[in-house]
Every structure is written in C-alpha cells, then in structure tokens.
From TrEMBL, chain A:
This is Outer membrane lipid asymmetry maintenance protein MlaD. The gene is mlaD. Residues 39-117 form the Mce/MlaD domain. The lineage of its organism: Bacteria, Pseudomonadati, Pseudomonadota, Gammaproteobacteria, Alteromonadales. It comes from Idiomarina ramblicola. PANTHER family: INTERMEMBRANE PHOSPHOLIPID TRANSPORT SYSTEM BINDING PROTEIN MLAD, INTERMEMBRANE PHOSPHOLIPID TRANSPORT SYSTEM BINDING PROTEIN MLAD-RELATED. NCBIfam families: OM_asym_MlaD. One of its GO terms (molecular function) is phospholipid transporter activity.
UniProtKB/TrEMBL annotation, chain B:
Belongs to the MlaE permease family. It comes from Idiomarina ramblicola. It is found in: Cell inner membrane. The keyword Transcription does not apply. Part of the ABC transporter complex MlaFEDB, which is involved in a phospholipid transport pathway that maintains lipid asymmetry in the outer membrane by retrograde trafficking of phospholipids from the outer membrane to the inner membrane. Probably responsible for the translocation of the substrate across the membrane. The complex is composed of two ATP-binding proteins (MlaF), two transmembrane proteins (MlaE), two cytoplasmic solute-binding proteins (MlaB) and six periplasmic solute-binding proteins (MlaD). This is Intermembrane phospholipid transport system permease protein MlaE. Pfam families: MlaE (PF02405). One of its GO terms (cellular component) is ATP-binding cassette (ABC) transporter complex.
C-alpha cells in the first residue's frame, strides 16, 4: 500500500533526525571511552593537572598507549587524581615509572607522558588498579613567572 | 515627476499588500480547530515529499562539506601545531553556521521550489477554486500540511547535515590526515556547548524552516496562473528564500554570538 510505505519512510526520517541529534549531543558534549581492545586501569595523583582532559592521550615516547578516563579530586587534601586506561598490549611498566603532564607544541593540547622505569628483581610491574606515585605536575605559566620574579628579587 | 512618485508609492503599497496577504494566508491556514483525523494523513504525505526526499542531497552535501572543512582546516591549523583544534573548528562551524544555512539553501532549492510549482499549478488548473466550490478550505487542506511538514522536517535535516558533516571531518582529519582521535573528540567536547552551540543552531534552523516554507507557499499561492507565471514564482521562491536565509542568519548570529 502506498501510504504504508510513505509512513514507513517518514518514520525512518524522523528517527534518523533524532539519532543525529543524539550523535551530536553525545559526541560533541560528552562522550564515552572508545579505546579498542583490552585495557587495564592505572591511577596517579598530581599537584596540578593543568588543562588535562578526560580522553587525553597517555604517551610513551610519543606513542599513544592509553587514555585518561576520569579526573577527580581525592583524599583529605583534595589532590587531583587521574584515572587512565592503558592498552593490555603494554603491561610491563615497572613501579618506578614516572608520569608527567606535558604539552604538545606551543599551543597544543596537554597529554600524559609515561616514562618507563628500570626493571629489577626487587621491582614489580604495574598491575590493574595500581597507583603511579612518581608524578610531575603541569607547568603553570603564572607560577613560573612568579618564581622567576621571586628569584630575581633575591639577587 | 508625479509619475516617479506614483511608481514608488505603487511598489510600497504592493509590497505591503503582499506582506499582509502572506500573513493572512498563514494565519488562516494555521489557526483553527485542529482536525487530526483528516489532516494527519495529508501531513504524513507532505513529510515524505518535503523531508524524506530531501534527505539524500542533504546527507551527501553534509558529508562532503564536513570532509572539505577537515581538509582545509588541517592545512591551516598544522602550520601552528594546533591540528588538535580541528575537531572544534569543524563542529562549531557546522553547528553554528553551515548546518542551518546550507541546509536552508538546499531545502529552498529542493523542497521550496517544488512546493511553489505544485501550488502554482494547482491554482493554474483551478484545483484550488474547485476545492472552494466543494466547501473545502484550500488553506487548511493544501497549505497547512505543507507548512507543518516543512517546519518540522528542515530542522531534522539540518541536524542530519551537522552530524554527517562532523563525521566527515572526523574521517578526513583522523582517518586520513592523522589527527589524534581522542584529541579530536575530547577537544571538540570541551569546546562545544550544547546550549550555546547546539540549541542556537536548532533555533536558527527552525527560523529558516519557517521562512523558507512560508515564502514558498505564499509565492505559489499568489502566482500568476500561467506557465510563465509559475516559472517566475518558482525562481522568485528560490531567490527570495535564499536571500532571506542569508540576511536572517546575520541577524541571528549577531543576536546569539555577537556579544
């Protein structure tokens, strides 16, 4: 029947329009994790995370190994705590690894740089749910200028 | 000399009468006791003609415009090492401007001209008069379902355009040119505000839908019932509607994002 087909197509049309709205609202306003493959979770505490965002990449020597999945304040002193999910492919990072907030380029986005530590018999590898203790915070330009001026004043 | 003033006066009066006529047409088409049982099938039919059949051209142009935005934006942004900002650039330009405006222009060309031609031909073949003879109000029967169908389907088309365009930008930027996928979406998410950008874009597309459909219906309804008259009315629909979209877009942008 002709009107049946018409109704079907109008239904499809409206549904596709609403799906487009959801796509934009979810992908452009907030989103979920889409790292492919298995992953494990690590945590790290910083003094200052700068402008790090959820979904920012975690890189080892420039190679993306994972993504930031959550940023929150934790503990009595409200320290920024970053939760990141690292690909299972790279699961041999030692406990002594360091993590720092870095910036790509002069105006670029901030990301986490993971520096693998030494491996020894006495050192364990990082497992799911472990905390990376050795972290370097983001460089905040205002603080840097403040320190510079302060050190100039001492001379 | 008096002829000069007379011609100005005639034009002003004509255009005022036109605006009044268009308003009266719209009012008597929309306002009245709703008859869902009678008008729903007519509305669905028009949604199909106006909306569904415009889907293909809107989605294809959205994809290509998004891909071109990704390509052009990348070549400029990469000079400053800021290619991560490709996501917000594509998303904001699509949601704020290109989505509503280009969809409006395509809609005026694809659906608006068809509406004008159809109603003009109905008038030329005296179908509208016949409806009146049968005590059926042509405004309620012919104009109203087309108006509602246009008003509802164009914002949906604009949303599809933006969504497909963003995906096209993602395909080119992330899949081809190697912008980091996570940065593309995360920077976009932090830059795009659903109220400022998404909602304002939707408001724009609703305004454009109203204007385009109204102009198309009015031009058809007032067309000179000859073949030359219908062709002039169709041309005039596309020209007037496009100019109205571009002019209104500037005013709306100034109100929404101007400060």
């Amino acid at each position: 029947m002709e009107s049946r087909k018409t109704q079907l197509w109008v239904g499809v049309f409206v549904v596709v329009g609403i799906l487009a709205l959801f796509f934009i609202a979810l992908r452009a306003a907030s989103g979920t994790m889409t790292t492919s493959g298995d992953s494990y979770t690590l945590y790290a505490k910083f003094d200052n995370i700068g402008s790090l965002k959820v979904r920012s990449p975690v890189k080892v020597g420039g190679v993306v190994v994972g993504r930031v999945t959550d940023i929150s304040l934790s503990g009595d002193y409200y320290e920024p705590r970053v939760e990141m999910s690292i690909s299972k492919e790279y699961d041999q990072f030692s406990e002594t690894s360091t993590l720092s907030v870095l910036t790509s380029g002069l105006l670029g986005e901030q990301y986490l740089g993971l520096e693998p530590g030494f491996i020894d018999d006495s050192v364990d590898t990082l497992e799911d749910g472990d905390m990376i203790t050795d972290t370097k915070s983001a460089l905040v330009l205002e603080n840097l200028i403040g320190q510079f001026l302060f050190s100039q004043g001492n001379d | 000399m008096s002829q000069f003033f007379q011609s100005i006066g005639r034009r002003v009066l004509d255009s005022l009468a036109g605006i009044g006529y268009a308003l009266a047409m719209l009012m008597s088409a929309i306002i009245g006791k709703p008859q869902p049982r009678k008008s729903w099938p007519l509305f669905v039919k028009q949604m199909y003609v106006v909306g569904v059949l415009s889907m293909l051209i809107v989605i294809v142009s959205g994809l290509f415009i998004g891909m071109v935005l990704g390509l052009q934006g990348y070549t400029i942004l990469v000079d400053y090492g800021a290619e991560q900002s490709l996501g917000p650039m594509v998303a904001l330009s699509l949601l704020r401007e290109l989505g509503p405006v280009v969809t409006g222009l395509l809609f005026a060309g694809r659906a608006g001209s068809a509406l004008t031609a159809e109603i003009g031909l109905m008038k030329a073949t005296e179908q509208l008069s016949s409806l009146e003879m049968m005590a059926v109000d042509p405004l309620r029967r012919v104009i109203a379902p087309r108006f509602w169908a246009g008003l509802i389907s164009m914002p949906l088309l604009a949303l599809m355009f933006s969504a497909v365009g963003i995906y096209g930008g993602y395909l080119v930027g992330s899949g081809w040119l190697g912008v980091d996928e996570g940065a593309f979406w995360s920077v976009m998410q932090s830059a795009v505000d659903w109220q400022d950008d998404l909602l304002n874009g939707i408001i724009k597309s609703i305004v454009f839908a109203f204007v385009v459909t109204w102009i198309a219906l009015y031009k058809g309804y007032r067309s000179v019932p000859t073949s030359a008259g219908i062709s002039a009315a169709t041309t005039s629909t596309v020209v007037t509607a496009s100019l109205a979209i571009l002019g209104l877009d500037f005013i709306l942008t100034a109100i929404m994002f101007g400060g």
